[in-house]
Amino acid sequence: MDLYVVFPKDPPGEWLGIPGVRAVSAEELSSIEGKLVLVVGDCQLAERWRVACLTEEEAEEFLREFRAFPSGR
After folding, report:
1. Model-level pTM?
2. How far apart are CA 1 and CA 62, in angstroms?
3. How many CA atoms lie within 13 A of 6 on its CB side?
4. DSSP string, 38-58
5. Per its UniProt entry, which superkingdom is the organism in (predicted)?
6. Are 48 and 6 in contact (CB under 8 A)?
């Protein structure tokens, strides 16, 4: 299952091309049903969708940790 990281606008380039992660803008995601979703920078949207919300700073830290995690999970 891929992790969808949703940004209010276009996702930052450093989020693109990461295996297992789909970085998308909020308008690109038509449905969250059956998806693992994190919203970055729009906690009202996250609350409406009942998913986790990260600040941009938290998302940057998450990305650093995610990239440090050994592949081959």
Report:
1. 0.88
2. 18
3. 23
4. EEES-HHHHHHHT-EEE-HHH
5. Archaea
6. no
> Would you kindly state where each structural domain of the chain is located, as residue ranges?
3-68
Q: Which residue has the tokens 């940790």?
A: 65
- 45/73 Cα distance (integer angstroms): 30
Residue bearing tokens 């919300």: 53
What's the token pair of residue 31?
Answer: 């449905």
**Token pair in block for residue 65:** 């940790």
In order along its 73 residues, the chain shows pLDDT tens digits of 889 999 999 999 999 988 889 999 999 998 999 999 999 999 999 999 999 999 999 999 999 988 887 664 4
How many other CB atoms are there within 10 angstroms of residue 6's CB atom?
26
